[in-house]
Amino acid sequence: MLSIHGLIPKECIIFDTEIQNREDIILKLTNTLNNAGKIIDTQKVYKDILERESLSGTGIGFGCAV
Q: What is the H or E stretch that residue 64 is in?
């Protein structure tokens, strides 16, 4: 799978997850980014994303979020 114009590495894109709630998918995202070496402090990033989501969701429909 190719990344989007090289901006998003393919190892940081999550497809076909069965996770249904926001907190668990954000945890999966932060763990994925950590495993790809893109973040260091997984818990801080998780907390920051939840805080950001409380202002306005990033879901764009059809089970997708940016």
A: strand 64-65
pTM: 0.74
pLDDT by residue (tens digit) across 13-41?
A: 888 788 888 899 899 999 999 999 999 99
pLDDT of 5 reads 55
DSSP designation for 23: H
Query: Which two tokens mark 51?
Result: 């805080």
CA gyration radius, the chain: 12
Neighbours of 40 (CB within 10 A): 9
The residue count of the chain comes to 66
Give the pair of three-digit tokens for residue 41: 């402090």
H or E segment to which residue 61 belongs: strand 59-61
